[in-house]
Amino acid sequence: MRKIITVSREFGSGGRELGKRLSDILGIEYVDGEIASELAKLTNLDGDYIGKQLENGICGFQPVYARSFSRVSQSSGTAMLLASQHKVIKEIAAKKDCIIVGRGADAVLAGLNPFKIFVYADMPSKIMRCRSRCADGENPSDRELERKIKEIDKARKTTHGVYSTRVWGDKEGYDLCINTTEVVIGEIAPLVAEYARTFFKNN
Amino acid sequence: MRKIITVSREFGSGGRELGKRLSDILGIEYVDGEIASELAKLTNLDGDYIGKQLENGICGFQPVYARSFSRVSQSSGTAMLLASQHKVIKEIAAKKDCIIVGRGADAVLAGLNPFKIFVYADMPSKIMRCRSRCADGENPSDRELERKIKEIDKARKTTHGVYSTRVWGDKEGYDLCINTTEVVIGEIAPLVAEYARTFFKNN
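^ Those are the sequences you sent over. The predicted structure of the assembly is below.
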């Protein structure tokens, strides 16, 4: 059975760090960069552009029959990118065990029964994590960071809803939901890795 | 710092078993029976009666100003029992480290910063766990068990809402949410115990 871990996460909750640490501990490849480069090849588009489009997600996306033409054209570029991303993710997961952070992988790979983690935290904790990642000279206010965090998570939720009947962030869609408020990711990663090993043994 | 673990759980998800196993592994007392006997002493009521009343919870309970007199009298007996239970829980937690399953302990003891777990599972899995606990000769249909599970969890949610601004089952109110669908509780308990140790080290 293929060993796949998907890490869905609120922005600033440390999900990416957890995914990388799980990869180091378990020896399962973290494939974020590979997805990005394969997607750029497949679509013949610039990687930075793709990243931006996918981060923004699909705002107010609805099934085609319910949308006006203007909204179709507004969203169709991103929708096509997402479809291409799904193709790339499926191709990679068909070939090897992997860990994928975000990118709707929990929904795309549902048929392969991945170990599905959701990582979340309270707002002050997420703001603190985001601030620690700011480039030198950048000094956004807490309010600006909070707005950014909420915007990104809203886009993630909306986009996820297009491809899954599960609601992004609803615990029912995940095997383990981890609150990283005041948690040192490096300390819990070995325990989560062991939990994943138990999951793979039984599934 | 007091070591307290609260296990909130959907009916049939194995939360009680997890609580008992954590107690065995960590050497922290599981105090369910003590709460029941202290509550019986304090209220001078029969233990079985108390258990039944608390399981039913408070249906449609609202702040006093919004209720009619008939609803006040209907709910006030249970509300008083719950208040007594909170008193007992606080007194026990003030004296010693403990593990408490259910009983709104996550809300009652919030000031002591407990390690808060929520245990959940999909409906088929909960039905299976409930069935395995049925007495000899009892053979309820899946539909009957599902109705019972939903009823009990609805009562838990409503009752929890009376004493906490957190919604029962919303992951934000817990440190770790564990999906026990197709999970062997005995296998994950040592990992959850280790996770709790990490929590207590940092809090």
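Residues 60-74 of chain B have pLDDT under 50 and may be disordered. Chain B touches chain A at residues 118, 120, 122, 169, 171-172, 174-179, 181-184, 187-188, 191, 194-195, 198-199, 202-203 (CB under 8 Å).

Shout if you want it in another format.
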